[in-house]
Amino acid sequence: MLEEKTTVRTVSPHAESDRSSTAPRPIVAHPWARGVLAAIRLSIGWIFLWAFLDKLIGLGFATPAERAWINGGSPTHGFLTNAVSGPFADAYRAIAGAAWADFLFMLGLLGIGVALLLGIGMRIAAATGALLLFLMWTAVLPPETNPFMDDHIVMGLTVIALALTNAGDTFGLGGWWSNLGIVRRFPVLR
Fold first, then answer.
1. Strand partners, 162
2. Helices (DSSP H) in 15-171: which residue ranges?
3. pTM of the predicted model as reported, rounded to 2 decimal places
4. Residues near 82 by beta carbon (within 8 Å), at least 6 away in sequence
5. Strand pairing report for 3-10 and 19-26
6. What are 69-127's pLDDT values in tens digits?
7. CB–CB of 95/75 below 8 Å?
8. Measured distance CA(50)–CA(136) in Å, rounded
9. CA distance 108 to 49
């Protein structure tokens, strides 16, 4: 668990002088707060993983089976062809259905979803998740119900907050993951 160092000053009427000690303190210490952050992490992770599974095999929610990726469909074609609007619409339409765009989109959904659900690689998941959500936000500018704010921005900020608060350590493998030699050597993997 990433911890901050704080200085604790103890003053006692029996002590001749003040004593200072440095003690580690968790970023989010209250167990209920950590539980809520874990629930948010698991919820957002499931949203990403579910989108991947639905687009991969066509579970009939957003993607019918006949348009599933494993059946030759394109995970990006429908949305980037029909639903985009605003100043970047032409750029998104130009990449709609491109094999590289489909692959990167699906890899992103899978990787972000698994990382959030397991609580590992939270920093990379937060960065890539926030980037993917930002790109999705730019695809539908301006949002329908607000001049600029929508759920993509809120969820992007949330995944960043989850990484900053080590939310993967609670009900996840983040604590174990952070103790691996490679993760200690390259903290970006945390």
1. none
2. 31-57, 77-82, 89-95, 99-118, 122-138, 151-164
3. 0.85
4. none
5. antiparallel
6. 999 999 999 999 999 999 999 999 999 999 999 999 999 999 999 999 999 999 999 99
7. no
8. 17
9. 10
Continuous segment of H or E residues that includes residue 3:
strand 3-10
CA dihedral 125, 126, 129, 132 (to 10 degrees): -120
The predicted structure's pLDDT at residue 20: 45
> Which pLDDT value is given to residue 11?
42
Please identify which residue in the block is written with the tokens 């500018």. Answer: 141
Mean pLDDT of the chain: 89
Q: What is the pLDDT of residues 23-64, one digit of tens each?
A: 556 789 899 999 999 999 999 999 999 999 999 999 999 999
Residue with tokens 């003690």: 23
Tokens coding 181: 């030699």
Number of residues written out for the chain: 190
